[in-house]
Write a structure and sequence with these properties.
Helix content: 40-55%
Structural class: alpha+beta
Number of domains: 1
Shape: elongated
Strand content: 15-25%
Order of helices and strands: HEEHHEE
Largest sheet: 4 strands, antiparallel
Strand order of the largest sheet: 1-2-4-3
Number of strands: 4
Length: 136
Amino acid sequence: MATLEPTRGQLERNISQRIQSLYRSLFGHQPSQVSCNLIDNKLVIAMENAITPPEKLLVDNGQAELAEKVRSELQTVLEEQMKDLINEVLGVEAIDLLNDTTLETGRTGTIAILGAAPRIRESSSKSKNQPEAGSI
């Protein structure tokens, strides 16, 4: 019996959950919301409440520059683990990660450039944003 490929939504949910778990295990803090969207050979990740309590403490006490340095170092340390997580879940290599964080809002955005589009099964219901074949 053949195994069905996961749907886009299943992969996006799985990555979101795994990222929250990774943050919790590494930093003792997890983002309150992680949204992932697969677009061809790209994965867009948006995180709410992604900064750690020490980073927030620094920002709140006028040390934003130091907090930015801390965040930059954390992103560097996290990069290989994020790539590994993406590779494992999607079954394709993440060849580049582009990251940015706004400390004042606690939001982090990541775009993962993939070596290829992951294999997915089309869900049984069509996306509301996806036009029917032949329509404009």
